[in-house]
Design goal:
The structure is a homodimer. Chain A is of the alpha+beta class and about 350 residues long. In chain A, about 35% of the residues lie in helices and about 20% in strands. Chain A is built from 12 helices and 11 strands. In chain A, the strands form 2 sheets. In chain A, strands 7-9-6-10-8-11 form a 6-stranded mixed β-sheet, sandwiched between helices. A 4-stranded mixed β-sheet of chain A has the order 2-5-3-4. In chain A, strand 3, helix 3 and strand 4 form a beta-alpha-beta unit. In chain A, helix 2 packs parallel to helix 3 and helix 4 crosses helix 7. Chain A is globular, with a radius of gyration of 21 Å. In chain A, about 60% of the residues are buried. The N terminus of chain A is likely disordered. Chains A and B meet through helix 1, strand 1, strand 2, helix 2 and strand 3 of A and helix 1, strand 1, strand 2, helix 2 and strand 3 of B. Strand 1 of chain A pairs antiparallel with strand 2 of chain B, so a sheet runs across the interface.
Chain lengths: ~350, ~350
Amino acid sequence: MPSDSADEFEVIRALFAPHARAAGARALADDAAVIEAGGPLVVTTDAIVEGVHFMPDDPIATVAMKALRVNVSDLIGKGAQPGAALLTLIWPRSRPAREIQAFADAFTGDLAFFGMNLLGGDTASTDGPLTVSVTAFGAPLGERTPSRADAQVGDDVWLIGGEIGSAWLGHQLRSGAVKLEEIRRGRDEAAARAEAEAMAGQIPDYLILPGEQLDTEAAWLMSTYLAPFVRPECAAFVARFAHASMDVSDGLVADAMKLAAASGVALRIEASAIPFSIPAERWAFSGGDFRKLVTGGDDYVVLFTASPERRGEIEAAEGAGALRLSRIGRVEAGQGVELVDRQGHPIPIPDPGFVHKLGR
Amino acid sequence: MPSDSADEFEVIRALFAPHARAAGARALADDAAVIEAGGPLVVTTDAIVEGVHFMPDDPIATVAMKALRVNVSDLIGKGAQPGAALLTLIWPRSRPAREIQAFADAFTGDLAFFGMNLLGGDTASTDGPLTVSVTAFGAPLGERTPSRADAQVGDDVWLIGGEIGSAWLGHQLRSGAVKLEEIRRGRDEAAARAEAEAMAGQIPDYLILPGEQLDTEAAWLMSTYLAPFVRPECAAFVARFAHASMDVSDGLVADAMKLAAASGVALRIEASAIPFSIPAERWAFSGGDFRKLVTGGDDYVVLFTASPERRGEIEAAEGAGALRLSRIGRVEAGQGVELVDRQGHPIPIPDPGFVHKLGR
């Protein structure tokens, strides 16, 4: 029973090789790559599995983008500039081979967008679900690489890079668990229709719900679920200002709990300061349970803590506000995460996040 | 739908953290690791999939070892000292959770054996097959890292690190496609029985075929299939002597063809010089098709080319012969691989190796 790694990678080498220009990548034609590292490298690996991290009917292009971006998100959360990636593609025998081209186009397009090189990889066939494992490398932008464990009592707690809950809500819309009218309640329908008409042709078909006209808000929410909109510009903030830092992927509350536990501190988060999208707020204020937004996951934004003395610098650095910078709370002595309302009253969170279990 | 990466890795963090002592590994409690690289790093990634690279009833301990060793083999083939690894474990929901402990014990035991650190990883659940993806890092022992493309006309062709065909034959024995009596023909049964008695208790139960008494030859063949016996000492030979070099994983002929193609040369290989195990030779000389041995794969030895001027140095460097160093042929102008018998006559190889196809 031979390894089927090397030959299968040759199947897609032709698709990927034009994007493997780094000398160390050896045009993907060798068994290993060489990284010429002149200093510290940040390295991370994350896999996505069909049926777990994406659905079988998600577009293959966004699956490719998600596989890379969840790793880029980890690099950003550590204040590193994305540099290179390895790709392992476990392809189901039942999935059409022609989708590999679309996967490769999307993956290499995203690599180019982030200025990254493909160093190499592996492929195999499976009778199980499509599985994409990526290892990503980045160069730290700062002198230190902040960990989860570096929060200090008195720090501000910040989010940067996007909205909380949008991806979760987009997934609910796509799966039909949340109906379109639930995010439409109370909005200006004429303005929404005009916006949709102006955007017609620019929104991919897979973002239009069956039996519905184009809805730009729904399209935005679903697109953040399908392929998170990660912002490498945030890495500079992390490198310059962060004590502790991590990306938010498993739900804001669950990830804040991890940061608090690793740092040996408590995080007090003001619910009203959390950045939600307009449709998510509308949904939460008209009957939706906002706690789902802060526990749903797939946000891929950065959670960091920084000295309050740097508050002015941090706000000035964001400038026009394109990075959705939000100061959402503070680090206190103690443990755990407390979510509070405008009056400072605790908001109970029955299920702080995804509970995981391996095997039976 | 949240990512389930971080929390699940916490499930096994307790099992792996004692083995993640490198400062950059951050005790596996962070989203990324930091590698302090002072120079070039060799990096490789290989995944193994249940039903493709290993069988569902293979022991979970050898699955863990194979996952690491196929990557270590790539590093050795590039002349690099194994240094560190990332582990991505995609665990079937249907597989008992208690096997995770055995997996972790075997994986960390092998890491320690090779002097490697675990830098981090990812885990997820799947409804599909167990899938283990490893990324491994090594430090080049030489000034250059030989690629497949560096063979020169006139070079000797060498194998080092083990036998060809033993893993294939072991898999055939385990699956029942080859019967035990086929490797026993003509051997000294009294000596074999005495050896088996002397080894009793040292051979794991899973290496004893159903309904058979312990057979040390069969156990050896099966063990090389279950977890390849890779030899980091070979990396020094590659670093010191190799022009072109790669590990042999997909079958000797198929991998030699890749090296020939990448280098733009032909490889002439003498069948009688190929290192087979004693039972594999006995099987081939008593009715087995020896061409299966050179195309079967899973050998995980090193194929390299070197100047004939260094022949004496290379042979002297091996010393007592523990690394199974074999000079098997030479590099010629032309293309492809020619396998020849003792008289120099070509031996046709109908199927040079595993044919791969992704998707339907």
